[in-house]
Amino acid sequence: MAKNLKLTALAAIIVHCTQPTGYRRGGISLTSGKQTLPAEQLTQEQLEAIENDPRLSVQAVPLDASTAQNPQLDADNVGADLDDPMLYANVDYTQAPIELQPIIALMIDAQMELKPAVLDLTYEAPGENEGEVIKVKVSAADRDAAWYWLQDELAKAGEGE
Fold first, then answer.
1. 33, 104, 108, 135 — which has fewest CB within 10 A?
2. Dihedral, 110, 113, 117, 120 alpha carbons, nearest 10
């Protein structure tokens, strides 16, 4: 699914990379985990390559967050709290069990406030052959485990404020 971020409207992007350090996309070497990339260091082509990679979760940082109409990445995101565009900003999903990380990344990317249906969590992953992409369907048990892990982390982040 193509996204429509425009480089001219961004101060930066926050990239959550589930791949090992050194993973490259759009000519940029990424580190495993969360990192911020300033918009002035990106081209529109690099931005599109990064945001369309299913192994990366991208959050937009608008030029002026106080006047942004929709600071969320996805126009069709589900259940976003627009008064708190960074609902999960203090949650580091790379600390979750490895098998839950892609599911949690999807939940964070969409800023989900309600437990999603499993159909809302289907994602793409690299296949066994070069260039192959497979669709991964999430089980209800994995969805529940990811959701409860995320809610626990959100509660911990709220207590630390």
1. 135
2. -10
Report DSSP state, residue 1: -
Which residue has 């529109």 as its token pair? 44
Query: What is the distance between the alpha carbons of residues 142 and 63, in angstroms, rounded to a whole number?
Result: 36
- In sequence order, which residues have a C-beta less than 8 Å from that of residue 31 and are 6 or more positions away? 17, 21, 22
Q: φ, ψ for residue 4 (rounded to 5)?
A: -130, 45
Distance CA 66, CA 64 (A): 5
Token pair 């990379």 in the structure block, residue: 17
- Nearest alpha-carbon partner for 142 in 100, 108, 96: 100
Enumerate the H helices of 40-135 as residue ranges. 44-51, 101-109
Local structure of residue 155 (DSSP, 8 states): H
**pTM score, two decimals?**
0.47
Please report how many Cα atoms fall inside a 13 Å half-sphere around the Cα of residue 118, on the Cβ side: 10
Positive or negative, the CA dihedral 115, 148, 121, 25 is positive
